[in-house]
Amino acid sequence: MALPSVGAKSVLVKLLAAPINPSDINMIQGSYAILPDLPAVGGNEGVAQILEVGSQVKALRPGDWVIPRDAGLGTWRTAAVLAEDDVISLPNDIPLFSAATLGVNPCTAFRMLSDFEELKPGDTVIQNAANSGVGQAVIQIAAARGIQTINVVRDRPDLTQLIDRLKAMGASHVIKEETLRRHEMKELFKTCPRPKLALNGVGGKSATELLRHLQVGGSMVTYGGMAKQPVTVPVSALIFKNVKVKGFWVTQWKRTHSQDEGALRGMLDELCSLIRQGKLTAPACSEVGLQDFRKALDTAMQPFTSAKQVLVV
User: Fold this and answer.
1) SS3 letters across 188-248
2) Is 32 annotated as catalytic?
3) Per-residue pLDDT for 303 more than 90?
4) CA separation (Å) from 137 to 2, 56, 106, 110, 312?
5) What's the rounded Cα separation, in Å, for the pair 174 and 177?
């Protein structure tokens, strides 16, 4: 692509690293909530470095690291000329992969832990897809706030290693999907309170099981649907436990708060502070050169993929 000249309020950036997320693949498949006009550049997340700024750009300077403010920017490329308002700066003293993967999953985790229930130290959150990018961020942000997590994962050949890895991140409990339906849950709730908040990235039976374990008046927030099955809510949970069933999409949150400069800035600053303290690390990443994008996409679509594919320019 030929790059346009840098206008008064635009910036020239060099892309440094951009991950492949499930939502990026959904966008290519045409099944995502926002679809760019074609021809389009894939990728909704990543970190870039500013090379040149327009004459009226005040807040950014060459050398700064920036990430997209919104989805649909197209990060799987080597360079771009973007409007100043399309990006927001990050400190460049955090690890590259932490910066590249900050805008979607950690922000989703941060908002879900902040906006739906008033969680205090000692409270419990239960989540499925605990090994996902969002799941790993939830574990770490919750641990930093003194909140216990019950983390549900699918059974797999390397389950023991996965449990150890999640516990090393700060997970209080890690259990298999099947355990949700067993008597062992009663024993677990002798050691921690029933969760006020359930986070659902799967749907189907898994979501229904999360709901069953919520405390009275608790909330289940759905942010993904890996199982491609609808969420079924038991009538008893609505009537007798008065549970709340909600959804969350970080892109919508960013658009709703687009005029509130402090909201996104404050969240990113808090996340970067956790990163600097070693309390929030990037998910396991596999570095792939941009020219090997086909291999990276194929790998990203395999089941039980533990490492996030990151395109490096």
Assistant:
1) HCCCCCCCCEEEECCEHHHHHHHHHCCCCCCEEEECCCCCCECCCCCHHHHHCCCCEEEEC
2) yes
3) no
4) 37, 37, 5, 8, 22
5) 10
The answer to whether the beta carbons of residues 61 and 97 sit under 8 Å apart is no
State the pTM of this model: 0.96
The residue to which tokens 């990006």 are assigned? 87
Residue 138 and residue 112 in contact, taking contact as beta carbons nearer than 8 Å:
yes
pLDDT tens digits, one per residue of 176-224: 999 999 999 999 999 999 999 999 999 999 999 999 999 999 999 999 9
Find tokens 């355990």 and name the residue: 179
Q: What pLDDT does 151 receive?
A: 98
Measure the CA–CA gap between 21 and 32, rounded to whole angstroms.
12
- Is residue 172 within 8 A of residue 202, CB to CB? The reply is no
- What pLDDT, on a 0 to 100 scale, did the predictor assign at position 80? 98
Rounded Cα–Cα distance for residues 196 and 267 (Å):
22
**Helix, strand, coil % (nearest 5) of the chain?**
35, 20, 45
pLDDT tens-digit readout, 35-85: 999 999 999 999 999 999 999 999 999 999 999 999 999 999 999 999 999
The catalytic position among 32, 65, 97, 248 is: 32
Q: What's the DSSP call for residue 183? A: T
